[in-house]
Every structure is written in C-alpha cells, then in structure tokens.
Amino acid sequence: MSTLEKHAHGGFVVEWRDGFKIGLPQVDAEHRHLFTLVRSLSATNVQATLDELLEYVVTHFTNEQALMEESGFPDFHQHLALHEQFSSQVAEFLSGTDEWSEDRIQSLRKFLNKWLVGHILTHDLRFGKWYQEHVTKTGHAPQAPRAQVTRAKVGWFDRLLGRG
C-alpha cells in the first residue's frame, strides 16, 4: 500500500509507516504525531491545528536537538541549521495574508509532508544510525536532558525562530 493516500477532505497526505522509524522511540513517537497533526489539517480546524502543530514542532526540535547535542552527534550544527531553515520557510508560508482556502491548506500539507519525509529519511535517519552505533552499542548513554527553564509564555512563532 502506498504511503500517499486520499484524505477525507479531498487532499493527499502521507501516512506514517514503520519505514520512517530512525530507531529512537521518543523521536519516532514524535515524528508519528507530527504526521497525525499534518493529516488532520482542514478548513474547519486550521487555526487550532496549526497552533498545536507549531507548538509540537518546537517541542520536537528541542527534544531532538538536546539528544543530539548531549550525545555528541558530530553533525549537530548542520542539523540545527536545517531546523532553522525549516522554521524560516514555515514563517514565510504563514506570513501570507490569504484566507485558509482548501488550496492553501493543501499547499501547506504538501510542503509539510514533503519536508517531514525528506528530513526524516535523510537527516534524522543518519542521526538514528549514528546514535545506535556510538551510544546504544557502546553503552555510553548521553547525559539526561537539562531541566527546562520556566519562563513567561512565548508565542510559537518566536519559539519556532528561537527568539523565546
């Protein structure tokens, strides 16, 4: 069965499949949830789903980047740059003043699905393999993630761009 399926709202979406797993359960679960959120975008829930999606992207990027940094992943800075580039692309897409028509929602869904699949199967999979080889197999676990600093609520846009 193809991972590209007809969506109930008339658009095409990419469904999660085990081939997207990178071998790190937390990261895989977060990726799976991102696919679910993208799939659920529709004209009736676009703003609420976008808010949840963008908050979750920030959480996922934060978790993934902490895991990379604390495990000593050598391509951490390049991966961070990819996340920053994605954040800029999303901000540019969302800065449009167009109404949320079905076409605009489909364009956003297409962009997000394409980026997710490409990023996971290329860059995240590379990290997963590196992690399995250098951390899991050697028994050298990364340090526990640092405690999050509690601060005033910052909007998703600022968090996405690293300004919060």
Structure description:
There is one protein chain. Mean pLDDT is 82; it is low at 1-9 and 143-154. A two-stranded antiparallel ribbon has the order 1-2. It is elongated, with a radius of gyration of 17 Å. The chain has helices spanning 25-40, 46-71, 76-94, 102-136, 156-160, and strands at residues 4-6, 12-14. The chain is mainly α and 164 residues long. The relative contact order is 0.16. Strand 1 (4-6) and strand 2 form a beta hairpin. The protein is built from five helices and two strands, in the order ββααααα. Helix 1 runs antiparallel to helix 2 (46-71) and helix 1 (25-40) runs antiparallel to helix 4 (102-136). Helix content is 62%, strand content 4%.
Structural class: mainly alpha
Based on CA atoms alone, the radius of gyration comes out at: 17 Å
Shape designation: elongated
Low-pLDDT stretches are 1-9, 143-154
How large a portion of the residues is in β-strands, by DSSP E?
A: under 5%
Number of helices: 5
Helix content: 55-70%
Q: Overall mean pLDDT score?
A: 82
Q: How are the strands of the largest sheet arranged?
A: 1-2
End-to-end gap = 42 Å
List how many beta strands DSSP finds.
2
